[in-house]
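User: Is it possible to get a 3D structure for a protein together with its bound compound? The compound here is oxalic acid. I've pasted both below.
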Amino acid sequence: MSMKSEVEQWVDESARLTKPDRIYWCTGSAEEYASFIGSMLKDGTLIALNEKTYPGCYLHRSHPNDVARTENLTFICTKTKDDAGPTNNWMSPKEAKEKVSKLFNDSMKGRTMYVIPYLMGPVGSPFSKVGVEVTDSLYVVANMHLMTRVGEAAMEHLEKTHEFVPGLHSLGDLSPERRFILHFPEEKLIWSIGSGYGGNALLGKKCFALRIASFMAHQQGWMAEHMLILGLQEPTGHVTYMAAAFPSASGKTNLAMMVSTLEHEGYKILTVGDDIAWLHIDEEGRLRAINPEAGFFGVAPGTSVKTNPIAMRTINHNTIFTNVALTPDHQPWWEGMGSFPPQGLTDWLGRPYAESAEKAAHPNSRFTAPAKQCPIISPHWEDPKGVPISAIIFGSRRSAVVPLVFQAYSWQHGVFMGAGMGAETTAAATGAVGVVRRDPMAMLPFCGYNMGDYFRHWLEMGGRIRKQPKIFRVNWFRKDKDGKFLWPGYGENIRVLKWILERVRGGGEAGETPIGFVPSPASLDTGGMSIAPEALKELLSIDKEGWLKGTDNIEEAFGQFGDRLPGELWEEHKNMRQRLEKT
Ligand code: OXD
Ligand code: MN
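Assistant: Yes, that's possible. Here is the predicted structure of the complex:
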């Protein structure tokens, strides 16, 4: 059977279950996108933005209960619970299908089913993979057009690789009681119902490129990670590539698009990706990364010409905004955009904005924009081979304890550092914001299998990589006792990346501490920036008590995995505690 017929067969099966009135096969063309936009403008799914200042841009207001990923309704449906592991919600495949097929039954009656063949990764890359999503949401279709490569590129790749990940999506009735995001990694299948929100409904992104892909990567000897990819260009013109894992809404897009404050010295950033990296080992034993996505689905609040001018230039044309506020002259507006709320503002729910209201834009309001519009996109962002990675960075929001930057002693120590990472929660998922939880490698919500096995996989990959990237931890978010950020962040983060680059080269000064190599204040290039010496000292200081407490938290987190946690990580844990106790 040809691959096209295999896809058709699965689409037929999905249609028999969901009973759409019509089936439409997406081609991915510009005309098709324009006609979808036209229909959504007509039925009110989209509002056109100011043609002069935001050409080709639209606003979508989602259902008010459908604004973020719902981790509590996200399941990994492996045959055994143990294979999903203690950090995932689990249902058996049988139970999941019985329960949720009832919800899919007739769910597309009166609607059109759109079939979206899409490619994750550059055209012609041996590492790219095909997905096919069927959905009854045109908003999802339009976003998939921006976030992936839809149509012919996918079908051509499919004929060569004979493999696709099917994803069935329906808005259902949008009720959280009937919302399920299900993954069947053993069958490489995704089912999602009851939500139109990006991370729940654009199935190429979190569901495929992270949860299903991490499972495949474990089986096949590569890695699928929640990482941005950037190139750091230095005065000679040489570019060093780094991949950095941060939890959702913790600054990956800002770091990936940073305008360096050391540009006058010749240090600048090139963007390869802002959310997901697929990493393979090449013939020379080097780790290489591709960005499987073709667009950015970024958090709007906090994005401004000051914090991320490159994003502002990326998203002022051909962009879909979701749940931002609307000015009277039809421009998007959000908190942290750098201006006061204008008179006559409409909030994300479509109501006149009142000063007393909490927020005009939803804290997890988003923009969806094509990556090729990014003015500093790397010339290698679609390189089929990917880019060679010299440094891996773990980062998260921590208002205390964790220094600005430090380096792991070894790959194994780096894996421990990532596996034990604590992070304050954000608005990208439903639930409390600002609570510290362990978020290993920023993959807690995205690992499609037992994280104990995932840590083992990281260790094994390290053993196979001949030219190992160096591993670092960063924290831009440490605060002083008055609650003020100690580090200015954004463009000044280049100074930290410069130190990382020096370390990668075998230079850069650093002292040995219980937690890793920490730079001395003098070894960070702070020339021309205003930072008090005491602030810098505090940023690089080791809070012994805080770390000892963290060690207890890590022990508890590791304990959940029982004998699936690699002994090497317990060894690193013991060593760190001993080093801390000795100081
Ligand atoms: C995202 C997320 O949308 O991590 O990238 O929530
Ligand atoms: Mn993300």
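Residues 69, 198-199, 248, 275, 297, 428 surround oxalic acid (ligand 1) (CB under 6 Å). The mean pLDDT is 97.
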